[in-house]
Amino acid sequence: xxxxxxxxxxxxxxxxxxxxxxxxxxxxxxxxxxxxxxxxxxxxxxxxxxxxxxxxxxxxxxxxxxxxxxxxxxxxxxxxxxxxxxxxxxxxxxxxxxxxxxxxxxxxxxxxxxxxxxxxxxxxxxxxxxxxxxxxxxxxxxxxxxxxxxxxxxxxxxxxxxxxxxxxxxxxxxxxxxxxxxxxxxxxxxxxxxxxxxxxxxxxxxxxxxxxxxxxxxxxxxxxxxxxxxxxxxxxxxxxxxxxxxxxxxxxxxxxxxxxxxxxxxxxxxxxxxxxxxxxxxxxxxxxxxxxxxxxxxxxxxxxxxxxxxxxxxxxxxxxxxxxxxxxxxxxxxxxxxxxxxxxxxxxxxxxxxxxxxxxxxxxxxxxxxxxxxxxxxxxxxxxxxxxxxxxxxxxxxxxxxxxxxxxxxxxxxxxxxxxxxxxxxxxxxxxxxxxxxxxxxxxxxxxxxxxxxxxxxxxxxxxxxxxxxxxxxxxxxxxxxxxxxxxxxxxxxxx
Length: 496
Fold this sequence. Notes:
Keywords: Cell membrane, Membrane, Transmembrane, Transmembrane helix. It contains 17 helices and eleven strands.
């Protein structure tokens, strides 16, 4: 017991020193008595987690300190790219890394930067096992009780955390999401554990979105979420003809305030599809797809279906990414055209080209037999931008500008075709295009443009109005798009 207490005190002290001196907090670490107790509790739970595998106090203490150090390093690296510390919801995305390694800057397991430290760590652990004696009781019954009791106790704690009465206590410690404040207040490990418990407790009630008026809706409503899209001139790039189209032909255009920088597409996507601002989602704001799983009775797609529209989700990537297929079906999309439908589509770099995606979108619009809502998510300009992505272009910003030119061309093609369709058929069409977040480029660091991308809202077949610049938030754009839906127009005659 003395050895365990000594190793624990030293390990917790080192963890505290690491966070106070080198932690990932934008303000000075707070050490008020309750906050300090929560910090130490976070470290202690990590130590006990590792201790149950070895029953070696010094090995568990070292592993605890190493874990905290790794969390700090990863969090600081993430902050440098995205502008946020490590989140509890990031761990829910870990299964995507081995399934889609091309989407991340993380080297493969066989890369020496990963394989060598892994092998050395494994060898050192084996050597430590042979050197440090176990403190597991030698007697059979006490030993068996310890082996079963500690894991069972930790498992019961995990089970109880999102349930009364413990959840009420945790809610007092973490009443509202305040990520930066909580990391400074109780440290990264305790924040990760506390936020996880609050998220596991279930989605919090959110205010109802206003019901649409019963008036005639547009025949076609197309929403295109443009991957990592901003006006390239904001990065010092050449003018994009599509931006001139925004300023001269869109009914409304401007800067779009989005909930994240450089990543977390699902946050902007959820805001547009639901019309809900992040601050009403509680702890689910960080990953609304994991927290709410598409449980949105007043989502754009469900409202469209209730008014007789076909609802189509179009995305040229794997169904399992972000659990998109499952979530989009819950949102109310009846037809999903995803990665398997683009097996033969032209690629630009590693992903399906935006121009080809635009052609598929237009084919779906032409083939419709009823009023149609399409939500399309592009993929061509998804990161990472690194050497080898494009032949002869290794600079990340040059790669981005190469792709964004195709994005602009696709928007122009779709807008021209939808305008011609509206004129030929005497129909009304809404086209909304928006960037989900700014790109995570060296020239586009966190804080760039106050988390604002660009958007445009075109209204074809309506009375022409002068283009108006209106800067707004992603959820407000979602509400604006809802205005294109209402009671369904007359079904399209067969063969037209």
